[in-house]
Amino acid sequence: MSTKVNRDTFDEVMVPNYSPASYIPVAGKGSRIWDQAGNEYVDFASGIAVTSLGHSHPELIDVLHGQVDRLWHLSNTFTNEPSLRLAQRLTNDTFAERVFFCNSGAEANEAALKLARRYGFDKFGVEKSEIVSCSQSFHGRTFFTVSVGGQPKYSEGFGPLPADVSHIPFNDLHAAEKAIGKRTCAVIVEPVQGEGGVIPATPEFLCKLRELCDKHHALLIFDEVQIGVGRSGSLFAYMEYGVIPDILTSAKALGNGMPIGAMLTTERVAKSFSVGTHGSTYGGNPLASAVADKVIELVNRPELLQGVKRRHQLLTQGLSVINERFGVFREIRGKGLLIGAELAGDYRGKAKEFVTASGSHGLVLLMAGPNVVRFVPSLIIPEADLMEGLKRFEAVAAEIVAKANHQKTAQAI
What we know:
- This protein is an alpha/beta fold.
- The protein contains 14 helices and 17 strands.
- It is globular, with a radius of gyration of 22 Å.
- Its EC number is 2.6.1.11.
């Protein structure tokens, strides 16, 4: 018999580094989820851009069940068929010639940063160690990645931090020119900053980073953990920009909920990870790799990627209509189905209020900092579900605006 648990159980037994919603989801199908009480929600969060093919996708379930009956795990003293097939698919479909598998985006970025430092050391010596990142960036929660990430709130209190890391303003060409030099071994950038507010890079900025990395023999790393695997409207966002990195990191949607991360790179750069220099106990796990291989097969189809662009238009147009009525947003921005709506005026700083209120209206939302409401639906969300989610968000906005107006009236009396 299963032990009965509820939201209060979290406060009793879990480390308090999260503040989860008041309800507990227990089932999901497509773009809908249900909680313990049977309440239904439209999912505009996708587990933070993870379940991009929705919940309980039948083809992914079939693949997982097939692999469960064959082989779950091997140590890295072996390779395995599913991980080889996945690596082959990724190298066939991208710039990459070599792949390293791990369990998460943070681990993929950790591997990318370690590889870049090792490559700099191998080719140019110990002085080639500086890493340049962007302010407001987010690259994971390991000690190295929170140091490289450009949000001090994630690294404060964990010092002393790794040295030779500097940050420049995102999309600032002049700052990039000043910061990147002969000691730089790598520049890491998100083509669309996710946690930093859903801010797309300008084509000029990414082109400048490529130019400066070539000039100073540094590696260009694209963190596509959130925007990759179809979310931009292309398999990976670098394809949208036409700028090819030396290393690319992927996770989140790669496994549609199965824990897997990947670092993609060229043969030339990969040589610096010789035997024993890096590893992962579960990286390339047969279960996760089998599912991820099917995910890439399903996502990398013209009709699905075109569907992402159509849904982008429907979602942004719908949010614009809501904003015309309520005036809660200063800007609606993003790429593909990673959309950020920056709050305006009296609503600034209230993104958490929107996310919390959405639960009572049967909608799952995210925030990207205190000023940005983030919309990250499945890449294949039915248009009827998309419109229903927008209808529910309109009710959220109406509630918050009415509350704000009531408070203003009360203060004026």
